[in-house]
Design a protein that fits this description.
The protein has 329 residues and is an alpha+beta fold. It has helices spanning 35-45, 50-59, 161-172, 175-188, 220-233, 253-267, 278-288, 314-322; strands at residues 2-10, 13-18, 24-28, 82-88, 91-99, 103-105, 110-112, 114-121, 126-133, 138-143, 152-155, 192-198, 201-206, 213-214, 238-241, 270-274, 295-303, 306-313.
Length: 329
């Protein structure tokens, strides 16, 4: 489990330290207070591979933008390195991102054509450095001893179809995981009979239909639910979900949350979740009353152009919601 994280000079965050992460960690706060930035930083730190940055750029729709790299730095100041560090499974990790040697001036502002990324994992003496340029050319230098063993998944409203396909293919190859997946899908809709690949197409068969249905023709809620469940069953130990309520009808939130609580306890999966939904928090709070799971809520807010936070534990969350206090802003 990730215990804490320190973030400096990354996007909206000049500096913030978050501690005492629980099994399930929920982030609330007004728009543009840095919740997604925190989730990105957690994902970036826990995935020692260049694809982590590529994925972050894609979900932000920054690929091929002129400022795709400078936008990573707080206040576009490339003179201050991005520094992210934390403790994962009792090991100290750090990641540093700095400007590359090639800077282009266009008369209005400067932008990077390359950046350098360096990871350090202190116990295993793992180092990973990479240079990536805006033509997607990657130069990598890796030296390490020991097993990397890090596994995190970042899921957003616009999570890619390829992410779902990769995770689902792993799940369907294992009979036990496949049975669990079908059970969770039937919790969502009792008429679901099976899920499969027909050629390269993810398809779902229903008890009352003769032909399987292409998942792309189904609702956004089912797609989101399947993406979350398949990521967990594929073996990810850290699941990061940005705006979990998007696409999920409020009547199905209880099913999703109940399964998240169950999976977190049984499989030692840690969750980092952002939400703006009062319904989500209320349903979560009701289900927590009968659960021994450890949970923290981090209210993120901006004061005097500085990102700050307040931590609420399970008892605090229940008290705040019972008294109709607002903990989303």
């Amino acid at each position: 489990m990730l215990k804490n994280i320190d973030i400096h000079n990354y996007r909206a965050i000049k500096g913030i330290s978050l501690e005492n992460f629980a099994n399930i960690n929920i982030f609330t706060g007004a728009a543009n207070t840095g919740k997604s930035t925190i989730l990105e930083a957690i994902y970036f730190l826990c995935n020692i591979q260049i694809n982590s940055l590529n994925y972050i750029l894609k979900i932000r729709n920054f690929i091929d933008e002129k400022d795709m790299f400078t936008a990573l730095f707080h206040d576009y100041n490339i003179n201050n390195n991005i520094e992210i560090s934390g403790n994962l499974n009792s090991e100290d990790l750090s990641c540093s991102v700095k400007s590359g040697n090639s800077i282009v001036y266009d008369g209005l502002n400067n932008w990077l054509s390359s950046i350098n990324i360096e990871y350090n994992r202190f116990i295993d003496r793992y180092s990973y450095s990479a240079t990536i340029d805006n033509n997607s050319n990657i130069h990598i230098d890796i030296s390490y001893s020991g097993n990397i063993g890090l596994s995190a998944e970042y899921l957003a409203t616009f999570s890619s179809y390829d992410t779902l396909k990769n995770n689902l293919s792993k799940v369907l190859l294992n009979n036990h995981s496949k049975k669990l997946l079908n059970k969770y899908l039937q919790d969502f809709d009792s008429n679901i009979d099976d899920i499969m690949f027909i050629g390269n197409i993810i398809s779902v068969s229903y008890k009352n239909l003769s032909n399987a249905v292409n998942i792309k023709s189904m609702g956004k809620g089912f797609y989101s639910y399947l993406t979350i469940i398949s990521s967990i069953l594929a073996g990810s130990k850290i699941i990061i979900i940005d705006e979990i309520e998007n696409g999920i009808h409020y009547t199905l939130l209880e099913t999703l949350i109940r399964n998240i609580l169950k999976i977190s306890m049984e499989n030692e999966v840690q969750f980092f979740i952002s939400t703006h939904s009062k319904e989500f928090l209320e349903v979560f709070n009701n289900l927590l009353k009968n659960s021994c799971i450890d949970i923290n809520l981090y209210n993120i807010y901006n004061k005097n152009n500085s990102i700050n936070h307040i931590i609420y534990n399970k008892d605090n969350i229940n008290l705040m919601l019972s008294n109709q206090n607002e903990i989303r802003d």
